[in-house]
Backbone:
């Protein structure tokens, strides 16, 4: 697909969450991303759409794939990318998010990519800076580019989303990926089964228009996609589960549980994985069923699309 | 002081069951000389000047049972002088201040300091409460008896809740012996840990840790159960949910206690938080619209006795943070009455009832002779145009902190002037 270098109009200035986007915004981003898939596979991966633009990656939480994916995406588009190392920054000296934002704003960036442990941090930032803000994950609220890349992966394999039955399983309570995916896949017409033990199920989640399951076998039955989430032990302050091995027994994706899904069901996981806790290690590596590596690959394309669209506003 | 005459006012004085058109006379000592329909143009000396209020309302000065002041320790948020001015502009003439200061109001010597400051710096009646436990640590009780002798009329740990049941039962026993009022903020801290909004769809959507209504209900149930054995004067500071209303309804006949509600929980719901508006991060949190309606209904069924402002001034820096980091509470003493009038204008609660919950009821619970227009008492009252439209603007707030929960809200009803001991200390422009 040929690359469209022209700026594309989108209804929002920032990408803070899927909740703010319309279906046409989403289709715009996904179409744009498709055009970058081929580019990313070619020998010369660099174009100059964002030449002269400055992109700052502001990661308050550790991240491997999202941060490197955003960094690579910006560089491939020709932007000057700076990744702030929070460990050595003034934030450790007690500077507030708003003061950090004002400081960075004074350097006239065109795009700020932010990940923060607090829900709504990107919203706060977006009110204080002049450039586009892209949310790379805020607390347990949203992780829009992850949901977009998941959607792109599903479309790539299944050619559609509408009408598919998709199970999202695991630590839903602490998961921004789950929330963004619920909004996005719902909007695109999928039927969603949300599977989690009651202690990891957010209150009133059924109001988001999903089917709620505490029994994984019921939840994955006849599904086209089984999306596993990471057990976020670092966010768990008190006893949510008795043990990892019990969790694996009841909520880990094992071959016998996967059998209940459709024969051609795909396995997804946003990474990083806890092998042997939420997913059987062989299943994770099964090239016929697992699209986990493809998710990472398409992540770069999706982030290029987002950087292009929001960076050119 | 010259005698003052007010005529043609709508006088509401719930304590004396007065709700009529009439006048009010303040004598030379600043005391009420006469009120009601007997006071009219025909029976005041013809040479006297009088104020014709043309049907405007006169209410007793409001008694606000839950007010935070930054003095001592956090004077940059609010001091006695700014609190007093904010209160006056809202028609509030008596307040109970919370002990959550630095140092904590937990001993006799600090009470002396506080009373002196309150007297010198403020023009309203300040009733400091003292903490239930030393340094709010929930381990040792404060000296209820000695503090009471110094003039403390209520005991509470303010934003803290006594979690330990044994300690709570001992507090109740002592409070019973010494006839002290215990006011509890009902919140199970294990259940509310790290929470910042109501546990429900809003928490799920915003990705914030929720505070379940269970956290409130479980403490209320516990305390009311304890109260069956240790019947002290007990007041639930504020309730926020329909579950709490249910518990109160069930226990009302079995034990004696009183209940308050914050004007915020009575007027707003969790959806008002919108896009992480930290000024609406409150404790107890704003809950669902069904919860809010149940609180209104509870007032009409006499299950809630008091409306408070829960005035909690916080500086800009404490609020310009992410939602989970931001400080809890809203400044609200000056908008308490106008916001409460909204319930009258939308036909939810009768005006007489609203004024009762803002004046005579809190005074009765506190056992203070305030919140009434009884002849011979201090002439603490306010003149209110209950229909006057205005808009809440942060920059127009009198309080030192501008963290209002109702920025830009259209109001109907404004305090025109406020009198304390017969002296006009506030007049709207």
Residues:
């Amino acid at each position: 697909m040929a690359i469209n270098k022209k700026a594309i109009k989108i209804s929002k200035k920032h990408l803070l969450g899927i909740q703010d986007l319309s279906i046409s915004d989403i289709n715009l981003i996904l179409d744009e991303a498709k055009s970058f898939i081929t580019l990313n596979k070619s020998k010369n991966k660099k174009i100059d759409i964002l030449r002269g633009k400055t992109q700052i990656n502001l990661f308050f939480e550790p991240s491997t794939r999202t941060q490197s994916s955003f960094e690579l995406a910006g560089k491939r588009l020709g932007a000057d990318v700076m990744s702030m190392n929070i460990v050595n920054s003034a934030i450790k000296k007690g500077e507030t998010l708003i003061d950090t934002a004002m400081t960075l704003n004074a350097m006239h960036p065109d795009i700020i990519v932010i990940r923060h442990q607090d829900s709504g941090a990107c919203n706060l930032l977006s009110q204080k800076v002049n450039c586009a803000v892209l949310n790379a994950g805020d607390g347990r609220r949203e992780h829009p580019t992850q949901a977009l890349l998941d959607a792109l992966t599903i479309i790539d394999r299944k050619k559609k989303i509408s009408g598919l039955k998709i199970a999202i399983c695991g630590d839903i309570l602490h998961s921004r990926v789950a929330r963004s995916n619920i909004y996005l896949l719902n909007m695109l017409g999928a039927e969603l089964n949300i599977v989690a033990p009651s202690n990891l199920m957010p209150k009133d989640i059924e109001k988001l228009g999903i089917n709620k399951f505490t029994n994984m076998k019921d939840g994955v039955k006849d599904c086209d996609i089984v999306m596993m989430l990471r057990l976020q032990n670092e966010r768990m302050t008190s006893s949510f589960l008795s043990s990892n091995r019990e969790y694996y027994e009841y909520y880990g994706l094992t071959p016998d549980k996967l059998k209940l899904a459709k024969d051609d069901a795909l396995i997804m996981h946003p990474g990083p994985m806890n092998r042997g806790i939420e997913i059987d290690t062989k299943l994770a590596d099964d090239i016929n069923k697992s699209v986990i590596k493809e998710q990472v690959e398409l992540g770069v394309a999706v982030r290029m699309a987002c950087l292009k669209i929001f960076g050119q506003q | 002081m010259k005698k003052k005459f007010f005529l043609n006012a709508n006088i509401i004085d719930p304590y004396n069951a007065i709700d009529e058109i009439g006048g009010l006379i303040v004598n030379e000592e600043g005391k009420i000389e006469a009120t009601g329909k007997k006071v009219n143009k025909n029976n005041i000396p013809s040479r006297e000047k009088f104020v014709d209020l043309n049907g405007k309302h006169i209410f007793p000065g409001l008694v606000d049972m839950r007010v935070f002041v930054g003095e001592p320790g956090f004077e940059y948020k609010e001091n006695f002088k700014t609190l007093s001015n904010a209160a006056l502009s809202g028609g509030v003439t008596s307040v109970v201040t919370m002990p959550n200061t630095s140092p904590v109001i937990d001993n006799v010597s600090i009470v002396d300091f506080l009373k002196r400051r309150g007297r010198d710096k403020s023009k309203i009646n300040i009733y400091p409460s003292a903490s239930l436990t030393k340094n709010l640590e929930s381990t040792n009780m404060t000296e209820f008896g000695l503090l009471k002798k110094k003039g403390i009329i209520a005991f509470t740990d303010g934003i803290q809740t006594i979690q330990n049941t044994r300690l709570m039962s001992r507090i109740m026993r002592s409070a019973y012996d010494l006839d002290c009022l215990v006011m509890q903020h009902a919140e199970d801290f294990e259940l509310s840990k790290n929470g910042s909004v109501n546990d429900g769809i809003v928490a799920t959507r915003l990705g914030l840790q929720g505070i379940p209504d269970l956290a409130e209900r479980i403490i209320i149930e516990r305390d009311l159960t304890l109260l069956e054995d240790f019947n002290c004067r007990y007041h639930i500071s504020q309730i926020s949910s329909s579950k709490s209303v249910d518990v109160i309804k069930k226990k009302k006949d079995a034990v004696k206690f009183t209940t308050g509600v914050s004007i915020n929980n009575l007027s707003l719901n969790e959806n008002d938080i919108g896009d992480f508006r930290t000024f609406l991060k409150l404790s107890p949190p704003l809950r669902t619209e069904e919860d809010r309606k149940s609180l209104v209904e509870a007032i009409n069924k006499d299950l809630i006795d008091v409306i408070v402002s829960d005035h909690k001034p916080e500086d800009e820096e404490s609020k310009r943070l992410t939602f989970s980091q931001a400080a809890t509470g809203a400044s609200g003493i000056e908008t308490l009455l106008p916001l409460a009038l909204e319930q009258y204008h939308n036909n939810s609660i009768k005006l007489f009832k609203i004024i009762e919950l803002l004046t005579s009821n809190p005074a009765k619970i506190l056992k203070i002779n305030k919140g009434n227009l009884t002849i011979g008492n201090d002439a603490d009252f306010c003149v209110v145009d209950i229909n006057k439209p205005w808009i809440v603007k942060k920059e127009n707030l009198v309080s030192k902190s501008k963290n209002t929960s109702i920025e830009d809200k259209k109001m109907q009803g404004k305090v025109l002037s406020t009198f304390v001991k017969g002296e006009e200390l506030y007049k709207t422009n």
The interface with chain B takes residues 19, 96-98, 116, 118-121, 123-124, 138-142, 176, 179, 202-205, 207-208, 237-238 of chain A (CB under 8 Å). Chain A has two domains: 18-143+296-311, 144-292. The radius of gyration of chain A is 19 Å.
